[in-house]
Write a structure and sequence with these properties.
mainly alpha; Alpha-lytic protease prodomain-like; Alpha-Beta Plaits; 2 domains; 3-stranded mixed sheet; two-stranded antiparallel ribbon; 9 helices; 5 strands; elongated; transmembrane; membrane; transmembrane helix; transport
Length: 306
């Protein structure tokens, strides 16, 4: 966890320097403007992660008897919204440029008395903006899977969007310099098709978490393996029970529900919780035979897709 915290502080520092540099050489390029807006939005996931980490470590209190572990889920939702909004902004702005057939221009700037094409400065700034996200994103992904931290995983997705934006913006600037006025907007449009997909996936999973849905995989809306693992173990013991699990921050908690819940011993609970380090505070809720089995496939049009 300490390594993840350090990475997020490094992310904030690097992204702040990139935002400042791009602001200096922004010009009238749509691809540059897109890259700049994207980098500003990319500050939200690491900031949300650090804030959530600070609050989630607080002990339970009278006002929050279950603690503040769900701050991590709130941070995940905030990061997912940022990534989704970013994709929408990219798509709207680049499409508008193409529809209006706006012709961007790249002028020159005087440095030490010499006229220098602004495109060279833009390309240099964009190359600089690509390097830290590539490195940071690759460092975060395995760490996010190890910690099962969806906010950190979403931040890694945002880092991928960062360097993709920079690379496409370079292509757009070069295209405009060669006389292809549409290259700038097309470069931004290409980026905008990949980013919303990641954002909507993260938004879908974060919504499920806050709605007390069953735990989901860190990189897909499918059920997490822990659900099937616990179900298989309970069936192996021959118990008529089902695990009702939900995600609380990085951890998974819930109830063992069914007519045989009273037969689950303390040793069995320990065995179940040892199957996954995220499992904590499992409880028992016996029911009568009339309500077993209780859980089936969701049939509502909306929730069946969550």
């Amino acid at each position: 966890m300490h390594r993840a915290i350090r990475l997020e502080w490094w992310t904030l520092a690097w992204m702040a320097s990139i935002i400042a540099l791009l602001a200096v050489v922004l010009g009238s390029s749509q691809a540059m403007r897109t890259a700049w807006i994207e980098d500003i939005l990319s500050l939200l996931p690491p900031a949300a992660f650090l804030i959530a980490e600070k609050f989630s470590r607080r002990t339970p209190s009278r006002r929050f008897p279950y603690g503040l572990q769900r701050f991590n889920s709130i941070a995940f939702l905030a990061s997912a919204v940022a990534l989704t909004v970013l994709g929408a902004v990219l798509l709207a702005e680049s499409a508008l440029k193409l529809v209006t057939a706006e012709h961007p221009t790249t002028g020159s700037v005087a440095i030490f008395g010499e006229e220098i094409w602004l495109g060279w400065l833009m390309i240099a700034a964009l190359i600089y903006s690509c390097v830290p996200p590539v490195i940071l994103g690759r460092m975060k992904l395995p760490l996010a899977k190890q910690l099962q931290d969806k906010t950190l995983h979403t931040d890694a997705d945002m880092n991928k969007a960062d360097w993709m934006t920079g690379a496409a913006a370079i292509g757009g600037i070069v295209g405009v310099s060669l006389g292809f006025w549409w290259a700038d907007a097309v470069a931004a449009l290409i980026i905008s098709f990949d980013v919303p997909r990641d954002g909507l996936r993260a938004l879908r999973i974060s919504t499920v978490e806050l709605a007390d849905g069953a735990p989901r995989r860190i990189d897909a809306p499918d059920l997490a393996p822990v659900v099937d693992t616990l179900t298989a173990q309970l069936d192996l013991w021959g118990l008529r029970v089902q695990p009702h699990l939900r995600t609380t921050g990085r951890f998974v908690t819930g109830e063992i529900v069914g007519p045989d819940a009273g037969r689950v011993t303390a040793e069995m609970l320990v065995t179940l919780e040892e199957m996954d380090w995220r499992l904590v505070d499992l409880s028992l809720r016996p029911t009568d035979d009339s309500v077993y089995p209780m859980l089936g496939e969701e049939e509502h049009f909306l929730t069946s897709r969550l």
